[in-house]
Amino acid sequence: MLLMAAIAALTACAPPRPDHPVIGAKNFTEQVVLGELLAQEIEAKAGLKVERRFYLAGSYIANQALIAGRIDGYVEYTGTALTAILKQPLDRDPDRVLATVQRLYRERDRVAAGPPLGFENTFAMVIRGDDARRLHLATLSEGARYAPQWKLGVGYEFEQRPDGLPGLSAAYGLKFDGAPRTMDLGLLYRALQAHQVDMIAANSTDGPIAALGLTALADDRHYFPPYQAVPLVREEALRRWPRIQTALDALAGKVSAAEMQRLNEAVDGEHRDPAAVVAEFRAAKGL
Questions:
Q1: What is the b/e burial string over 229-268, where b = at least 16 CB atoms within 10 angstroms of the residue's CB?
Q2: What strands lie across the sheet with 51-53, from one edge to the other?
Q3: 126 near 215, Cβ under 8 Å?
Q4: Which helix (H) or strand (E) holds 44?
Q5: What's the domain count of the chain?
Q6: Residues 176 and 150 in one domain
Q7: 42, 60, 65, 214: which has the highest count of C-beta atoms within 10 A?
Q8: Whether residue 231 sits in one domain with residue 108
Q9: CA gap 171, 165 in Å, rounded
Q10: Residues 116 and 11 in one domain
Q11: Angle 269-147-83 from CA coordinates, rounded to 5°
């Protein structure tokens, strides 16, 4: 009876096993777009219904959902996977980082890191375009001189993660006016425009950078590691639905950084439905 009770308890705690793949995404626009891209491509290439579980907070929650089998795949960035998830030292060689990420996911978690989608989304330290022109700033080294007069806005992860603010501050000698203001990623650009902060830790493919005439200061000391976008899929899901791999291969190299920025702006700036934006993109790419 005790054995039967234990088995029942384990079964009750086990994640559900639906008869269709489940694709996840973190809680910002680009992730929702990429999750929708994966889902639509799997539906088209594998003929499967795909369940969407988007807005899974940050990297830790999305990774835990993947490992626990709550989702079957999502898109991650190689530098984030290397440092924040797999807890490896910083490495700035893109090919070596990709190989390390693919090997460790396979060995530790039985997860396949698929071929890169074609673009890199690195952290970008963004200031108002007027400030950049007035002060003649193009690089982070130049901006460091003015940082003590600026207030900084960051997302919750960036303040603590090993490839985030502490290491960046040490690399450039950055000191700001007070402690950084932490907020949801979607609020950073509003705070910058409203002069509540003067610099934000954003993403290089964010649509508002170009749309609002902002300036991303160049990482001239090459602090940040590479952040290639790669789909992560559980090996069990690939065995169960082998044609998922066909979808991943079809997406390899299909999305440039400029295209990703336009997709983000279509959703954020133009307030369009991510599913419709992705469908148009896939049609334009012949997918």
A1: bbbbbbeebbeebeebbebbebbeebbeeebbbbbbbbbb
A2: 51-53, 22-24, 73-77, 229-234, 111-113
A3: yes
A4: helix 29-46
A5: 2
A6: yes
A7: 42
A8: yes
A9: 10
A10: yes
A11: 70
Token digits of residue 273: 């439905």
The answer to whether residues 265 and 213 belong to one domain is: no
Residuewise pLDDT in 10s, the chain (287 residues): 444 444 344 334 445 567 899 999 999 999 999 999 999 999 999 999 999 999 998 899 999 999 999 999 999 999 999 999 999 998 999 999 999 999 999 999 999 999 999 999 999 999 999 999 999 999 999 999 999 999 999 988 888 888 889 999 999 999 999 999 999 877 999 999 999 999 999 999 999 999 899 999 999 999 999 999 999 999 999 999 999 999 999 999 999 999 999 999 999 989 999 999 999 999 999 99
Q: What's the CATH number where 231 sits?
A: 3.40.190.10
- 8 A C-beta contact, residue 226 and residue 120: yes
Instruction: Pull the structure tokens for residue 52.
Output: 């969407």
pTM of the model: 0.84
CA-based nearest residue to 46, from 283, 262, 241: 241
Domain hosting residue 99, numbered range: 2-120+226-284
Closest CA to 110 of 227, 246, 232, 18: 232
Q: How many angstroms separate the CA atoms of 249 and 172, rounded?
A: 39
Choose one of 197, 217, 237: the last residue of a domain: 217
Q: Which of residues 172, 199, 217 is at a domain's end? A: 217
